[in-house]
Write a sequence for this structure.
């Protein structure tokens, strides 16, 4: 799928000139986020006020969770376009399912996570074993999941369980609950990647499937597992978003198709897989959400968000060819394909 | 032979690769009408020399003249224009194109016949090969020998002054080899200069006028074939000093550790061997004779069968994981692919193999891990700035030490090394030899596969020589010499060609698989499916075939016909264009502002100009992101996909703006019962179908997607092809936008989005491969029809709204799944027959 426009001479030069330290691709986004927060009040007065932050952070948290899922898939060089469907379906489990099946909220939520995992396993099986290209499989699965949403909801949105909503909009010591959940998950994933055998093997599969196989790793298990774990995270994001919005739109997940990918790329992860950082992805999610906030506060319509995200992603994936940060006197980004 | 001005003159050619001096001041020439053989062992530099001659490689120094003209521009096309062609050992053919199409792309423009005469021309060109190859056959369906024949035909079709044959007879049977020799002699008789590269000395002696021996990148002598014996040549091919860089051999061998009986794999026909404690066993042979299959099957890297024991316990070799559990650890040949994760650090690459020692209940103890990594780096003498340095930035030798360190951290009982010193310099090599000997002495028997016979002679206690999938010689102790190994490999390889060659490459693919993977096969299935669904529809309601229903179906498919065509342009190159749907919608929204009633014609023209500009801009942006910024197509077009959705919503957040009545009635005008735009769309797809097979642009488009490297070698401007495919896609989408406009009549910001998946589904149903190179515009048309008939049937069956989402999704999965499996089945047969 990828088109190999290799530039061996360039990478060769790069590596021979700077063999000393591996440039850290994950720091750029911290600088970008910090800069954005500094200039936010200048662009849109009030965009850094307490109320503005309180309304922005929960959405940042949702994007963090969704992007965390996406980052697992991208860590293996895949791509997941099924986020809207997974998020929309999960929302149904905290709005319609408890009533429909007559089960308690925790049971319905657990079912929602299981269904998310199941959809992920299905995608993983189709991608890894049947060898359908990831974007076709996930695009098709997205359509199927949205179909399920329509079948279950009959096309009418429902209201989220009130207890669940009060948790989703709640906060501890002024920190939104959703942000706490997102941070906990981010740190968990970060710790697993660094400190556990499972995490190390997961990243080894992403860096090179063939090498991982020869070193004795069950590569297919990890590859399917990536989609399954991502599915769980999308489900969680969907439920929390539905809880926060109380009466969610039936297609509430649409904007996450691109933004989840944008957050991962902006966070410095390699689209080819193998290099990724949960914390940087979360910071990128924060950056994107705040950027939207600023755009909206500056008076632009909601649809502007999509354009802004597209532009940011386009810049993130193409600017590595131009050493912008080096020109600005910042750290040089690594060569990326 | 009369002395005449040589056709090809190479003077002082030197080429250095990292760590290796591949060619050292080589002089080589070919005279008109002569057959000049170039012989030498594996890695002697033969293929490198000829790559330089044919313009595929730039030499570090030296000059090349073809037919008196000095080569200035180094490119395969330039050398071809000057009259030099080369038939590569591994054919650089485009697998999804037909034999005729491959030959058409092989020859320079001025030698290319018109497409109307192409098949006849190809048939004539194939005739002298004496093989029943159909010019219409897709190259992928050919056997290895047939592919080689097509490669040779492609080289000869240029009517060259000089032809280079690189190991041309490897896949050939005796009769086919004879036929080729006859052809080569006939060619030489007409004054063409021939370079013939081969391992097979009997062939060389039978065919050549002169023989040049190359060893370690240097010429070791040029002889008249009539005045030299096979033995003399072998001495020159071998003849390298076994110097002090090697450790002493084992003093005494211990008990057998590895016990192998009847190990078989594709290309390997049953090998028995015991490897004893303290022993280093070498595997030798001309490349592709089963030695690599042996070591890889033993390491669990490829599927094999047979009985293997380690330390008396049966070993499971189904996967590398299982082999490791049995104590067998393989150090693979290609360190960038299988040996290491190049983008990960030295530390990560080492520690991944040491988790058994560094982790407690699945959690890694960092201090322990750092210590293990530090110790391994020190013990192996890996020169790296730090453990956090990415492996890809190290030199080849240090990378190889990481691979070795990684293997040793796994604490093997038996160590398998596939080319342990390939591409690394002398100092590190000696170091690796001593380490391997050290481990053998410490009780870990080592099996070494190497294409360097001197290395085997210096390092090994015993060497097995492979030919045609079996062990043909076993050399022990003092018999293990460079000369003995070379002699056994070369002569055995030549002598038992005839009867029992491992011809596993006859394709036995099921008829269904063949039909599904053929170019128009899927169309037949689609027609059947369309007919069946129509019957179902009629069964549900007799209104199904009413003119109202038919014309409403036609109206619905109209935009998709064009979007599918656009999508196919991109998919043929191996890319994807997610932006077609939103672009179509955005164009209609633009139109809804300008193509209104009550404004002048100028206003309409401005609107149309803006639509064209937007489409071109999106096409260019997609193409530029893919071509120049090297963004993967999915991400590049996802950017425009999202951006265009935003743009549409920005222009109109709710549907509005009625399209002018005259424009609507123009677009919905009918010829008989059918809207004329549908007829135009069908005509366009049929024309595109023909163009994709009967024009050079079509061949280049499909060739690029089939194998972009081979296409580049054939002189296809790959980058330009990518760029134009995305632009073509956007322009087709522009046409589709007019039809969407006719269908909905207003500017709806969300109307187009669902067309993206539909366009992909339609063309995949029509047999397009998402990996590029294959697809049919005719199939795309039928795919569009099938999608619509399915949707309409669902409506007639009163299926719920959900089915609008389920049907495209399920059909996309089913179509890609079925074709992916069919193509894999077809491809796996080819892989089996291809030696490495």
């Amino acid at each position: 799928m990828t088109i190999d426009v290799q530039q061996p001479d360039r990478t060769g030069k790069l590596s021979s000139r700077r063999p000393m330290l591996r440039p850290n691709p994950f720091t750029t986004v911290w600088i970008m986020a910090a800069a954005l927060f500094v200039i936010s009040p200048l662009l849109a007065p009030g965009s850094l006020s307490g109320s503005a932050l309180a309304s922005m952070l929960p959405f940042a948290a949702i994007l963090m969770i969704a992007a965390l899922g996406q980052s697992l898939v991208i860590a293996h060089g895949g791509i997941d376009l099924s986020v809207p469907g997974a998020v929309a379906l999960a929302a149904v489990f905290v709005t319609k399912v408890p009533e429909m099946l007559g089960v308690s909220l925790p049971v319905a939520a657990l079912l929602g996570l299981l269904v998310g995992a199941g959809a992920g396993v299905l995608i993983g099986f189709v991608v890894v074993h049947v060898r359908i290209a990831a974007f076709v499989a996930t695009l098709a699965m997205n359509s199927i999941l949205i179909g399920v949403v329509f079948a279950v909801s009959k096309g009418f949105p429902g209201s989220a369980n009130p207890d669940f909503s009060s948790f989703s909009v709640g906060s501890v010591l002024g920190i939104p609950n959703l942000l706490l959940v997102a941070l906990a998950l981010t740190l968990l994933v970060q710790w697993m990647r660094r400190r556990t055998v499972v995490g190390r093997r997961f990243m080894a599969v992403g860096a090179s499937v063939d090498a991982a196989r020869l070193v004795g790793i069950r590569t297919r298990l990890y590859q399917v597992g990536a989609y399954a774990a991502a599915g769980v995270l999308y489900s969680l994001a969907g439920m929390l978003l539905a809880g926060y919005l109380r009466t969610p739109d039936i297609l509430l997940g649409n904007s996450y198709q691109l933004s989840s990918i944008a957050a991962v790329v902006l966070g410095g992860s390699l689209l080819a897989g193998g290099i990724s950082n949960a914390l940087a992805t979360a910071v990128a999610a924060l950056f994107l959400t705040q950027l939207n906030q600023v755009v909206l506060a500056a008076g632009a319509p909601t649809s502007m968000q999509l354009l802004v995200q597209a532009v940011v992603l386009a810049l993130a994936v193409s600017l590595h060819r131009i050493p912008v940060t080096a020109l600005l006197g910042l750290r040089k980004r690594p060569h990326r394909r | 032979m009369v002395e005449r001005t040589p056709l090809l003159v190479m003077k002082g050619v030197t080429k250095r690769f990292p760590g290796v001096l591949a060619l050292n001041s080589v002089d080589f020439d070919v005279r008109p009408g002569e057959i000049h053989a170039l012989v030498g062992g594996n890695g002697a530099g033969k293929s490198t020399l000829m790559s330089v001659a044919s313009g595929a490689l730039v030499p570090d120094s030296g000059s090349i003249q073809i037919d008196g003209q000095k080569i200035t521009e180094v490119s395969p096309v330039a050398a071809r224009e000057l009259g030099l062609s080369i038939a590569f050992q591994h054919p650089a053919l485009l697998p999804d194109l037909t034999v005729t199409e491959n030959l058409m792309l092989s020859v320079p423009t001025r030698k290319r016949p018109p497409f109307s005469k192409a098949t006849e021309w190809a048939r004539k060109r194939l005739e002298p090969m004496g093989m029943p190859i159909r010019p219409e056959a897709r190259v992928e369906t050919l056997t290895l020998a047939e592919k080689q024949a097509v490669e040779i035909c492609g080289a000869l079709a240029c009517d060259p002054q000089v032809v280079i044959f690189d190991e041309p007879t490897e896949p050939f049977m005796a009769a086919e080899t004879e036929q080729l020799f006859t052809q080569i002699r006939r060619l030489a008789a007409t004054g063409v200069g021939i370079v013939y590269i081969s391992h097979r000395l009997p062939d060389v002696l039978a065919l050549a006028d002169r023989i040049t021996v190359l060893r370690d990148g240097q010429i070791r002598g040029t002889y008249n074939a009539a005045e030299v014996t096979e033995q003399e040549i072998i001495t020159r091919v071998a003849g390298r000093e076994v110097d002090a860089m090697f450790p002493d051999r084992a003093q005494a061998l211990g008990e057998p550790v590895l016990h192998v009986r009847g190990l078989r794999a594709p290309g390997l026909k049953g090998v028995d061997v015991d490897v004893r404690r303290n022993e280093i066993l070498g595997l030798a042979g001309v490349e592709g004779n089963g030695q690599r299959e042996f070591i890889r099957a033993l390491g669990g890297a490829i599927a094999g069968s047979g009985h293997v024991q380690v330390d008396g316990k049966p070993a499971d070799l189904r996967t590398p994981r299982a082999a490791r559990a049995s104590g067998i650890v393989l150090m693979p040949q290609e360190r960038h692919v299988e040996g290491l994760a190049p983008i990960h650090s030295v530390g990560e690459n080492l520690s991944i193999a040491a988790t058994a020692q560094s982790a407690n209940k699945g959690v890694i103890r960092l201090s322990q891990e750092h210590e293990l990594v530090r110790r391994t780096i020190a013990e192996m003498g890996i020169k790296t700035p730090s453990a956090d340095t990415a492996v890809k930035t190290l030199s080849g030798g240090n990378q190889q030490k990481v691979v070795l360190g990684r293997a040793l951290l796994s604490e093997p009982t038996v160590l398998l090394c596939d080319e342990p010193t390939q591409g690394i310099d002398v100092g590190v090599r000696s170091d690796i030899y001593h380490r391997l000997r050290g481990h053998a002495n410490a009780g870990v028997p080592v099996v070494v596969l190497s294409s360097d016979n001197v290395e085997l002679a210096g390092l090994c206690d015993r060497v097995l020589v492979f030919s045609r999938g079996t062990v043909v010689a076993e050399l022990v102790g003092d018999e293990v010499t460079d000369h003995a190994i070379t002699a056994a490999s070369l002569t055995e390889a030549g002598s038992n060609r005839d009867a029992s060659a491992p011809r596993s490459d006859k394709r036995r693919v099921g008829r269904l698989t063949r039909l599904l993977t053929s170019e128009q096969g899927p169309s037949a299935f689609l027609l059947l499916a369309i007919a069946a669904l129509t019957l179902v529809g009629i069964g549900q309601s007799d209104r199904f075939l009413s003119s109202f229903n038919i014309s409403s179906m036609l109206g619905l498919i109209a935009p998709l016909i064009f979007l599918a065509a656009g999508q196919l342009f991109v998919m043929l190159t191996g890319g994807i264009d997610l932006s077609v749907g939103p672009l179509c919608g955005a164009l209609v929204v633009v139109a809804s502002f300008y193509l209104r009633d009550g404004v002048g014609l100028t206003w309409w023209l401005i609107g149309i100009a803006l639509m064209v500009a937007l489409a071109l801009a999106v096409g260019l942006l997609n193409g530029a992101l893919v071509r120049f910024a090297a963004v993967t197509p999915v991400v590049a077009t996802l950017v425009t996909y999202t951006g265009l959705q935003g743009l549409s919503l920005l222009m109109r957040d709710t549907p509005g703006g009625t399209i002018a009545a005259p424009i609507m009635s123009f677009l919905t005008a009918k010829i008989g019962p059918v809207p004329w735009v549908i007829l135009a769309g069908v005509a366009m797809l049929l024309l595109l179908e023909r163009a994709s097979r009967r024009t050079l642009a079509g061949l280049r488009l499909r060739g690029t997607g089939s194998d972009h490297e081979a296409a580049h070698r054939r002189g296809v401007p790959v980058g330009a092809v990518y760029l134009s495919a995305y632009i073509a896609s956007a322009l087709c989408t522009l046409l589709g936008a007019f039809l969407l406009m006719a269908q909905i009549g207003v500017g709806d910001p969300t109307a187009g989005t669902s067309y993206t998946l539909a366009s992909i589904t339609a063309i995949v149903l029509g047999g397009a491969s998402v990996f590029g190179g294959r697809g049919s515009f005719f199939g795309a048309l039928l795919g569009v029809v099938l999608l619509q008939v399915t949707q309409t049937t669902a409506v007639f069956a009163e299926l719920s709204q959900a089915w609008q989402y389920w049907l495209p999704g399920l059909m996309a999965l089913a179509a890609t799944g079925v074709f992916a499996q069919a193509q894999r089945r077809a491809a796996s047969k080819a892989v089996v027959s291809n030696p490495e």
Summary: Residues 219-245 of chain A form the longest helix (27 residues). The two ends of chain A are 13 Å apart (CA to CA).
